[in-house]
């Protein structure tokens, strides 16, 4: 089987090499606006990006608008059920065509000169068309579709370049973990049309991505939250981060292609994930209602499956599956990122299950993400303001020789607190960015 790297050109041109040394990355990678703009071209412009979930456009003529990798998109569903994604930019003067976040329509009208496009992006009408003469072709005025568009089990991915491998190759080992996330319980379909919680963070997108696979910070960054839960409710969720949680069965794993995985399930589901949950509105009422309806033997497994997944699945560069939620970091500038948490529900389950899921999904973004966001911004300020300290440390468990191949899948894993996640995605970052810079030289006729 070929790998993603097999599709990349020679990496003889490596303009970023001086920004890396074993166990460290340079602060410029987080603060330099020129590097940020190059990322939008070379990285976001030349790999697969998560853009939406199919349930967000469930009905014929549904659409959403979203900025992904710096590009504004319209993502729509035709009456036949086919899914489309095209750039939200009029082919006339370049105006944003659709200025609504979502809706249901058979077409879009640009507010500048009323050029009209149907749900699949085809240009259907131009006012006073005779002014363009006989050579004007409506088909050539259609909105530009993304170069590649594929779905994996409801997750829609796009590439702005045709020169990428299949989505299956890109996902690699991560696909199996998406399956595990989806197939908990009785495999009811996941629905993402439940609202979202956005955070505008004054930090680089990679500062946020660093944290997505950082199993080192929870007991320290979230100390006050965990103390409140412990003092009020005893041994509840996340209290398994003890004095030396590297000795626990939890782990960090390199999935290849920049993707990583943190697995808390060995601790979270050791006995009962549901019984580890702290008290929340309706906890006992909903538990009792389900036991009364289905009996304890059936109700408790349903409740266990309703809790957070215990999975941090990070699909490089912009899909983070955390617990029962989906995160999308959208880069806005070298020092600004829009981080959106999307809540999920299950189709066809008792209403109590989805009510429980929503209560739990309100919990961490409200109490934990504020800790994380404060740290992201503190990192950004520290990196930007002190040129005398140039290097960022990512060497935890690099030299402790405690990593090993997982016998179940032959993928490399290390203890939970390892910086394996950062070292993994930075390797992929270098591959894509160096390849992009090489291509740019070739296209400019320099190389």
Write structural notes for this entry.
This protein has 447 residues and is an alpha+beta fold. It folds into two domains: 56-160, Rieske [2Fe-2S] iron-sulphur domain (Rieske Iron-sulfur Protein); 173-435, Naphthalene 1,2-dioxygenase Alpha Subunit, Chain A, domain 1 (Alpha-Beta Complex), CATH 3.90.380. 31% of the residues lie in helices and 24% in strands. The strands form six sheets. The protein has a nine-stranded antiparallel sheet with strand order 14-20-19-18-17-16-15-24-23, with helices on both faces. α9 (283-294) runs antiparallel to α11. The longest helix is centred in the last third of the chain and has 24 residues, at 420-443. The protein is globular, with a radius of gyration of 23 Å. The two termini are 30 Å apart. The relative contact order is 0.17.
């Amino acid at each position: 089987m070929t790998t993603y790297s097999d599709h990349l050109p020679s990496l003889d041109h490596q303009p970023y090499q001086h920004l890396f040394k074993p166990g460290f990355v340079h602060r410029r990678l987080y603060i330099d606006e020129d590097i940020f703009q190059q990322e939008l071209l070379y990285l976001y412009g030349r790999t697969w990006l998560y853009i939406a979930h199919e349930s967000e456009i469930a009905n014929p003529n549904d659409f959403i608008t979203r900025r992904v990798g710096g590009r504004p998109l319209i993502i729509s569903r035709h009456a036949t059920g086919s899914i489309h994604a095209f750039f939200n930019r009029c082919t006339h003067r370049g105006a944003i065509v659709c200025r609504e976040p979502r809706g249901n329509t058979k077409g879009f009208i640009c507010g500048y000169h009323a050029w009209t496009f149907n749900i699949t992006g085809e240009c259907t009408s131009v006012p006073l068309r005779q002014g363009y003469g006989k050579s004007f072709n409506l088909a050539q005025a259609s909105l530009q579709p993304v170069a590649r568009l594929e779905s994996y089990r409801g997750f829609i991915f796009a590439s702005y370049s045709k020169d990428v491998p299949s989505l299956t190759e890109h996902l690699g080992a991560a696909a199996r973990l998406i399956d595990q996330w989806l197939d908990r319980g009785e495999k009811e379909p996941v629905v993402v049309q439940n609202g979202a919680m956005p955070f505008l963070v004054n930090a680089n997108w990679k500062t946020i991505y660093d944290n997505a696979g950082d199993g080192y910070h929870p007991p320290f960054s979230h100390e006050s939250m965990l103390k409140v839960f412990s003092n009020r409710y005893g041994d509840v969720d996340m209290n398994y981060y003890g004095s030396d949680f590297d000795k626990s069965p939890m782990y960090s794993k390199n999935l290849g292609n920049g993707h990583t995985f943190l697995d808390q399930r060995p601790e979270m589901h050791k006995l009962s994930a549901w019984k580890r949950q702290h008290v929340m509105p309706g906890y006992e009422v909903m538990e009792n209602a389900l036991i009364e309806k289905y009996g304890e033997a059936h109700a408790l497994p349903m409740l266990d499956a309703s809790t957070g997944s215990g999975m941090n699945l990070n699909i490089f560069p912009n899909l983070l599956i955390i617990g029962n939620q989906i995160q999308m970091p959208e880069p806005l500038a070298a020092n600004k990122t829009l981080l959106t948490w999307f809540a999920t529900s299950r189709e066809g389950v008792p209403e109590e299950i989805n009510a429980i899921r929503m209560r739990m999904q309100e919990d961490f973004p409200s109490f934990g993400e504020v800790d994380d966001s404060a740290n992201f911004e503190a990192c950004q300020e520290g990196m930007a303001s002190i040129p005398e300290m140039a290097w960022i440390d990512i060497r935890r468990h690099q030299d402790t020789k405690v990593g090993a191949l997982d016998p179940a899948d032959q993928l490399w894993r290390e203890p939970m607190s390892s910086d394996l996640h950062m070292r993994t995605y930075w390797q992929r970052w270098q591959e894509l960015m160096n390849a992009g810079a090489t291509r740019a030289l070739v296209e400019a006729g320099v190389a």
